[in-house]
């Protein structure tokens, strides 16, 4: 008998580990209130739905890099939001940003096989690490400063010399912290490490003006954005990346060969969404209210402190035993939240609460917990 060496075995998907708490929450009238995953619940603008259904773009293959209309809309949005003019050729679409995060380390390692390391925040969205694993790279977490930004001085020079890229994330998922992207860009250029700046929550920046790494030049940096959060279009899977000409051009060509195509009708809908800023103002107001209300409910019920974040729509709090907290909240309030363990070993005592349920669902949790 031939004994085969086991290959890659995917770890359990983090959020599937919460399934054991669902029966506890399902017993309540009204069912589970899921605050564990950042799935938007609010409607996108009517013009977006109209564009999706009337584009007549479903018949042919859409351009992988994005239509001229879409890339032009992206360029206009970057100009309005950040006062930065990015050349059209340095902008491209992606099929939601999760796939970009998961696949880019592989493409970047092919670009420079002499490097084998992905640097990413020590408390972070788990796909940064998984993208490195899928690429056969070393996944090296970067410690965080007390402010929540990357502690770039803590990066070992030998790791920097081997890095295919550094991920930055501001506002952070899960912490909501804001990073100094000028410093991050300068570190990348000084160490010859491409910086990919995940800015998917930038429209929900509370404690400072919205910021992009592109405001500090495009050399050696790529900004990554999504319409999932900004425009409640997570189900359409559309995002974009923009920045360094050579890196963007390389990724555009690789991704053409892979066939990573945002569907044509989705691209048309994205144009309508990017050209409408008014609905984002409304969405910001919704999230501010929900953050404040959820923080009040959970602080009163638990005795832990739930502070408002500097950005994003997550509450991030040290509750001691995170799994026990999550179980108790499911049992007493019928709500699911994410233990911080999902986001790295440095956050095992924290929970993340996504305020992505309508106001009446948050009030349902409050009533179950006996919090006025």
Describe this structure in words.
The chain has 13 helices and twelve strands. The chain has helices at 22-26, 46-54, 68-82, 97-111, 127-134, 157-162, 181-190, 227-230, 245-258, 264-274, 278-302, 322-333, 359-369, and strands spanning 33-34, 91-94, 117-121, 138-142, 163-169, 195-198, 221-226, 239-243, 314-318, 335-336, 338-339, 350-354. The termini are far apart. 39% of the residues lie in helices and 14% in strands. It has two domains: 14-43 and 279-369, Aspartate Aminotransferase, domain 1 (Alpha-Beta Complex); 46-274, Aspartate Aminotransferase, domain 2 (3-Layer(aba) Sandwich), CATH 3.40.640.10. It has a seven-stranded mixed beta sheet, with helices on both faces. Strands 9-12-11 form a three-stranded antiparallel beta sheet, covered by helices on one side. It is globular and about 55 Å long. It is α/β, with parallel strands linked by helices.
Briefly summarize what is shown.
By secondary structure, this protein is α/β, with parallel strands linked by helices. It contains 13 helices and twelve strands.
Task: Summarize the topology.
Layout: H1 22-26, E1 33-34, H2 46-54, H3 68-82, E2 91-94, H4 97-111, E3 117-121, H5 127-134, E4 138-142, H6 157-162, E5 163-169, H7 181-190, E6 195-198, E7 221-226, H8 227-230, E8 239-243, H9 245-258, H10 264-274, H11 278-302, E9 314-318, H12 322-333, E10 335-336, E11 338-339, E12 350-354, H13 359-369
Parallel strand pairs: 1-10, 3-4, 3-5, 5-6, 6-7
Antiparallel strand pairs: 2-8, 7-8, 9-12, 11-12
């Amino acid at each position: 008998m031939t004994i085969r060496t086991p290959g890659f075995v995917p770890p359990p998907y983090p959020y599937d580990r919460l399934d054991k708490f669902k029966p506890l929450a399902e017993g309540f009238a009204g069912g589970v209130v899921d605050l564990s995953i950042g799935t938007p619940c609010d409607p996108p603008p009517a013009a977006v739905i109209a564009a999706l259904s009337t584009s007549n773009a479903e018949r042919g293959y859409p351009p992988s890099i994005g239509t001229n209309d879409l890339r032009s809309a992206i360029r206009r949005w970057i100009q309005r939001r950040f006062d930065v003019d990015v050349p059209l050729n340095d902008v491209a679409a992606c099929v939601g940003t999760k796939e970009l995060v998961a696949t880019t380390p592989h493409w970047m390692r092919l670009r420079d096989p002499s490097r084998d390391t992905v640097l990413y925040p020590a408390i972070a969205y788990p796909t940064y690490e998984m993208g490195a694993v899928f690429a056969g790279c070393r996944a090296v977490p970067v410690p965080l400063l007390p402010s929540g930004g990357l502690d770039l001085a803590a990066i070992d020079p030998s790791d920097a010399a081997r890095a295919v890229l550094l991920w930055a994330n501001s506002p952070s998922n899960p912490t909501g912290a804001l990073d100094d992207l000028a410093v991050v860009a300068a570190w990348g250029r000084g160490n010859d490490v491409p910086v990919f700046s995940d800015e998917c929550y930038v429209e929900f920046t509370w404690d400072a003006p919205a910021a992009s790494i592109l405001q500090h030049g495009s050399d050696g940096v790529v900004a990554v954005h999504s319409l999932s959060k900004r425009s409640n279009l997570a189900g359409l899977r559309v995002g974009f990346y923009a920045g360094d000409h050579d890196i963007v051009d390389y990724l555009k060509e690789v991704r053409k060969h892979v066939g990573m195509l945002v569907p044509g009708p989705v691209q048309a809908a994205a144009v309508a969404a990017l050209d409408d800023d008014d609905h984002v103002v409304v969405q910001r107001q919704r999230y501010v209210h929900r953050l404040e209300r959820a923080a009040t409910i959970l602080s009163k019920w638990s005795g832990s402190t739930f502070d408002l974040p500097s950005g994003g729509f997550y509450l991030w709090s040290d509750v001691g035993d995170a799994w026990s907290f999550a179980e108790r909240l499911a049992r007493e309030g019928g709500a699911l939240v994410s233990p911080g363990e999902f986001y790295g070993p440095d956050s095992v005592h924290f929970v993340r609460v996504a305020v992505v349920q309508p106001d009446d669902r948050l009030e349902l949790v409050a009533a179950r917990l006996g919090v006025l």
